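Take a careful look at the sequence and tokenised backbone pasted below. I need to know what the token row says about the fold.
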Amino acid sequence: MVVFFGSPDFSLPTLERLLRSDYRPALVVTQPDRVSGRGKKLVSTPVKRLAEENDVPVRAISSFNDSDIKNDLVGLKPDFFVVVAFGLIFPESVLEMPSRGCVNLHASLLPSYRGASPINRAVVNGDSFTGVTTISMEKKVDAGPVYLQEVVGIDPEETAGELFDRLAGAGASLLIDTLSGIDAGRIEPVPQREEGKSFAPPLKKIDGLIPWDKDAIKVYNHIRGMNPWPGSFSYFRGKYIKVKDAWPCDLIKRPCPPGTVLQCSDRLVVSCGKGALEIKKLQIEGRRSLEAEPCLRGFDMKRGERFRGPE
């Protein structure tokens, strides 16, 4: 018997596969509904909506301190807890409940990028590959022994959002293979190695601020890695500017401060710490998102002006 723990879109492919398998969850546990949008409406997690559509019982919790959820979980006599981007830390007392263990899917090749933002960090760092890993959960987050891993290449033009979708699909297959492998006695978890360990802390909105002082390739990777959230942004004449798409157009050291507008007629080119970046799509505060050329026609930008941080 399986209990599934998950909340965001990344969890959906795994839950969909479980629903069609021999490991159909008896219960889905997710985060509570949140207020969202200008209308301040309560919105359920994607996992909750999918579970309800498939007539699977759902519990929404904000912590494991509630004795009711612990009693309910124990009463189910679970074989497996399957955890995919749930969003809460599991206490040791909960980790010990399932007879076959707690299996977690993580979107990196552990021990690289332990933490909440492994996909974004891999893209920001310009990695050529990443992957998915299933582990046996321990009290220390993302540090448990490894069951299975699958390598996934990263396209040099791919955004974090696009990679997110591919890793979610790859992870769903790996998770099913892990459960069947454990049941058949084909796999045992192997302790994570210490070498190569790195961390991916949760992203904050300010992480999207474009680091113009870095070279053009790193700025380009930052823009890819922050897409779709928190999004890459800068300030121009005090206005908040979102950069939706860009491309490094040279790597030559330029004798001007980073963030300087080099060209703003038919194309928008901005200097970096080394080289320059062509901004292909942007959104100026209070306006809709546009390709660079039509955006420039409606905004009197001049060469030599600068994109900066918040003032």
Summary: The first strand starts at residue 2 and ends at 6. The chain has a mean pLDDT of 95.
